[in-house]
Amino acid sequence: MLKEIDTATGLARNELWVGGSGAALGPLALANSQQVLFVGSAEPGRPGTVRLYRLPFEKDHPLPTTTLLSGGVTTSPGSVSPTAQTGSTLAAASAGTGSASQAYTEYHCHDLPVSRLRLSFDNQFLFSTGEDGSLCIFETQNVIGKGGSVGASSGPGGGTVGSREARSDSMTLGGGGANGSGLPFAEEILVTKSDLEEKNRLMNELKSKVDELTLHNEYQLRLKDLNYKEKIKEVSDKFTAELTQDRQRCGDLQSDKTEMENEYQKKMREMAATHRSEIQELKTTYEAKVEAEKARYAALEQARGEQNTRFEEESHLLVESHTQFLAEMTTEYEQKFAHEQELQAVCEQAKNELIATNEALKRSLEEDAELEVDELKSKYELKLSDEREATLRLKGENGIMKKKFSALQKDIEDQREEIRSLEEKGKELTENIRGLEKDIQGHKKEIREREETIQDKEKRIYDLKKKNQELEKFKFVLDYKIKELKRQIEPREQEIADMKTQIEEMDAELEQYHKSNAALDLMIGELRLKMDGMQKELSLQATQVALGKALVRQVQTDLLGCAQLLDNKKALKVAVMALNKKYEDGVTPDAKEPNSQAEYNRQREYLEKEVESLKRKIMKGMAISESELHRLQRENAILTTQVNELRREFHNVRMQTQEVRDAKYKSTLSIANSAVNKKLSVSTEVMRERKEKMREAEFQKEHILQLKARITELQKTLGGGLKFALSGSSNSSQHRQQQHRRPAPPAAQRLPPV
């Protein structure tokens, strides 16, 4: 329901019923002319629209028939059907008999209900906002002034002003209002005078800054050109001197080369003569030795034939006695063998269990060994690459000598092979004789040993059963200790991981400090260059001032001369004309001097301010870096002590676990020996364990040395960084050279894993 109330009487003139249209009305906006009313729809869950009503409301107006469009909008017969985006022209009637009916124009502008409606101060624009966050701007000048209808300037989601094409569309779509004229889109954007003044002021400031920067950059470029020209001269002089020295050195080396070639040729001739004489002597000696060996070989063959006949007789007798003894022994040992088979079946079960445990231990040992092998492989591959390069060099040098020496060596090797073949034949005969004698003694010893071993094994079986029971008790105790040790190790490992993260963070902080120190050095160097340039400019200005003073004195003297001629007008005129001609050429540059002087003064003030600000920044940075470096040193000392303590505890726990594993491993080996009844030597295992312990000890020593080196490097870098920051303002060029020689920052060198 809309009511039109007279403010003078306080009574309602007309009432307009809007409930039939199915829309709930929300915010209102009334024009200053009080002829147009704008109403926004506020029905939740439906798109927001803006309606335009003409005032005053028409009372007792006949209701037109309504029709439903495809978009769900009703229109009067005299209205124009709109499109989907711009809105629609509707006619609504009241439900009662005494209410007014009014034609209105409706525009769809938001996806959600309208929240606010406002008219501009000059009634030219209407602003509507919706709950979907969109802003629509309508141009209302034609509607309020001439009685036309309104045209939307943006769609449901838009908040921008429309173009001329959109304005033409709104004119056609919004033509179903009271007078049939649509409201065009707005093209103007409101900008206050203060914004324009601020922008102009910013433009002027930026232009002045650009001029200052261009002057500053030109000055810097001139200084750099001068410095680079001086450096080019120095470098060219240095390299010309080095070229002359290198040419002289090359001539000296060529002369030395010719002398060395002559000397080595003489030595090669002498060596060839000595080799020939030595080869002849060796031939004569080896021929005599070969003849002596042949005679001795004939004598040995005769002795071997006699010994063969004698040994054949003895072996025949031994075989007969041995067959009888074997028949007796087989009957005895068959009975024992059956008994041993029963024991073997029992032992095989125990053996299978032990094999499973041993395989698990073997896998763990193999994994550790593979890791060590990979580390050693990477280490020794580097050594191999270095050695290969060295060998390639040596091969190139020795290739020439080998070719000459190989011919002589082949002859010597041929003679040696003949001698070796003769010696090997003699050794084979002696070894056959000794082997037969050892076989006879071995058979006798085996018979005695087997009798003794049977008795020993029976005793051992009884002892091992007792030991097995004791070891099972000991195994239960050791398992409990291992679990407790594992519980103690886990928090220590977490602490070690936390310490590593802290060390990495400290490394990152140190990198930042080094970078800040380097940046400060560069700034100090630039400031020094600026100061040198300013001093040069000051010297130039001092010379200009001296010249100006001299000119002033000269002008004063000339004016005094003219003042003396005041009585004689003709002479005065001649003197004044002469002065004019004399100083006519020097007027224009003197006129420009004040501007240049002001420019120089402005540059000097700018540079002085910049130097003072940079000095303050440097002092602040130095104070901060000193405090941070002291803090890092304290934290580093605390961390090193904690790391050392944790490493000692970790080493002790590891040794305890190793001892427990050794005890378990020894117990399993003793059970396996008792079950299988074999003599296994434990010496190899002990040696292996000792080697592993030695490796661990060496690895721990290497870790300790690396950590000590790391601590010393950190201390050096921290101390060096502090000195670097303190002495940066005095000697920038020296610190640049030191910075080139200084090693990389400590963040690049990570601590090895514990």
Structure commentary:
By secondary structure, the protein is of the alpha+beta class. It folds into two domains: 2-190, no CATH class; 208-519 and 642-748, no CATH class. The chain has seven helices and twelve strands. The strands form four sheets. The protein has a five-stranded antiparallel β-sheet with strand order 3-4-5-9-8, with no helix packed on it. A three-stranded antiparallel β-sheet has the order 10-11-12. A two-stranded antiparallel sheet has the order 1-2. A hairpin with a 5-residue loop joins strand 10 (114-119) and strand 11 (125-130). Helix 5 packs antiparallel against helix 6 (683-726). The protein is flat and about 160 Å long. The model is unreliable at 60-100, 146-183, 587-594, 675-683 and 720-754 (pLDDT under 50).
Topology:
Elements: E1 2-5, E2 12-16, E3 25-30, E4 36-41, E5 49-54, E6 67-68, E7 74-75, E8 88-92, E9 102-108, E10 114-119, E11 125-130, E12 135-139, H1 141-146, H2 164-173, H3 193-564, H4 569-582, H5 587-676, H6 683-726, H7 732-741
Antiparallel strand pairs: 1-2, 3-4, 4-5, 5-9, 6-7, 8-9, 10-11, 11-12
Question: How would you describe this structure in keywords?
Answer:
WD40/YVTN_repeat-like_dom_sf, alpha+beta, 754 residues, flat, 2 domains, 7 helices
Task: Write a concise synopsis of the structure shown.
With 754 residues, this protein is of the alpha+beta class. The protein has helices at 141-146, 164-173, 193-564, 569-582, 587-676, 683-726, 732-741, and strands at residues 2-5, 12-16, 25-30, 36-41, 49-54, 67-68, 74-75, 88-92, 102-108, 114-119, 125-130, 135-139.
